[in-house]
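Sat 14:20. Reprocessing the chain from the morning session after the first attempt stalled halfway. Input below, unchanged.
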Amino acid sequence: MGTFQIEGGHRLSGEIQPQGAKNEALQILCAVLLTDEKVTIHNIPDILDVNKLINLLRNLGVKVEKTGKGSYSFQSDDLDMNYLDS
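Finished this time. Tokens:
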């Protein structure tokens, strides 16, 4: 097992909130297509794969609203299935 050895005279303090996991976020984002009700998801990671999927959902007609840092609302009540043919 690997180890970390930290040297220095300055103690660290503070808090961080890790981003959500990419693979889980991608699956959850796809699930918004299964209902026409408004869905709000928090702690979505701000990474390329996730952002591309959000744009794809927009192109399909999903109403996407960024409600805060890492938080979005989605509503799939008017999908454009013809987009899939393009």
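Residues 22-80 form a domain with the Ribosomal Protein S8; Chain: A, domain 1 fold (CATH 3.30.1370).
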